[in-house]
Amino acid sequence: MEKEQKAAQEQATYEQEPLNTEPQEEKVEQHEVNEHQEEIEIEEQEKAQEEQNDELAAANAKIAELEAKIKEMENRYLRLYADFENFRRRTKIEMEAAEKYRAQSLVSDLLPALDNFERALKIEADNEQAKSILQGMEMVYRSVLDALKKEGVEAIEAVGKPFDPNLHQAVMQVEDSNYEPNTVVEEFQKGYKLKDRVIRPAMVKVSQ
pLDDT, tens digit, for every residue of 45-79? Predict the structure, then answer.
């Protein structure tokens, strides 16, 4: 009787054992599912990180491009500003020069007339009528010189002065013991300056 009961118990235990394996299989499957899910989540995170990196790289590239354009525009602005300042300064200098030497063209045109006056005034008058004419011419000559002087015109000093190629034009050289070498000994034609600009150099003879 005891043997039969023991056998029955063993049989019952044997029949129940397969039932105990099902929860174990479910746990394994659930673990695998969880691992798979984690892998998917990791892949998605990595993909999202890559996308963020790509977006960041694109943004940095755009920023670099904009910075380069801004730099180029700044350089262009500086060049334009420098060109404008040079133009403004050059225009100012030209306007000042035009104002300063505004009488140059008139003076140049009057020089031949002054030369003719000077030549005429050297003529010796042999009667009262000629003397009167010469006196009138001298008055006109002096008036013209005074008007030119007001504009800054002055005759260049020549005789007895050291020869200056910027002021004098040597057309002859002579030996003259009365003068130091390289000194103007005679003036053939007067030279004139308008302020600090030579309108016509004096034509002179220079000692050797």
Answer: 888 888 888 889 889 999 999 999 999 999 999 99
> What token pair was written down for 103?
């009488």
Q: How many helices (H) and strands (E) does the chain have?
A: 3, 6
pTM attached to this predicted model: 0.58
**Amino acid found at 102:** R
Q: Are 156 and 196 in contact (CB under 8 A)?
A: no
For the domain with range 101-207, which CATH number is right: 3.30.360.10, 2.60.120.200, 3.20.20.70, 2.30.22.10? 2.30.22.10
Rounded-to-integer distance, Cα 149 and Cα 136, Å: 20
In this structure, the number of other CB atoms found within 10 A of the CB of residue 80 comes to 10
- Of the pLDDT bands very low, low, confident and very high (cuts 50, 70, 90), residue 4 is low
